[in-house]
Amino acid sequence: MFVVPLTSPWWSTVLRREIPGSAEEGESPLPESNAADAPEPVIPGSTLKVILHTRLQGQPGLGVIEREIPYVRGIVPQIRAAVSELGVASADAEALLPGATRVLDVAYTQGGTVYIDFSSELDLGRDVGAEEERVLIQGIVTTIADNFSAVRRTVILVDGRVPKPGHLDLTRALRRDDPIFAAEDESEPQTAPAISGGAATPSPPTQAPPKAQPGTPLAKPQATMPVR
What we know:
Low-confidence stretches: 1-8, 185-203, 208-228
Order of helices and strands: HEEHEEHEEE
């Protein structure tokens, strides 16, 4: 058991379970967190290679790049470092996080849930439009999942609280392959009608697959990099 400061809205949000389905039964955040004022255990001269799902220059949607960052010890500091890198632009990639967005804190549970708390600037990227918000949130979730194989789901918070309503449902934990990240299906081409006796017989309409309900358990994502 560990002591939780009563003045911290971030930890009290986690412990009150305000986000349904975010953690397994009896699961609690591990005692290590990565508050903004806590020193990170940087290893001089060592680097950590991370996969970033971010916006590429001149391309729509998300692309994938690799980047080397200063090595830090521990899964919580590594998650914070990897996600913070999404706010850094380069010659081949734009910054995914809105300007001045900071990762305030990170917590990780034994069941594989990551709680990541952003500063209020994150909401600026959610107010632009539905597609922009999808790209932003998907980039965060997939970056975490692809770099840390133990992570099963991600909970996004803003200033220690459940984010304000937007185009996506952020009141629950998200998986890499969550249905809310599915792009709109393009309309299938219409098949030519069958001709019988000079009369056209229209083809039966294509049935769209049923949409998964929010909170439905999904398959565990396949990660491409182990935890270092």
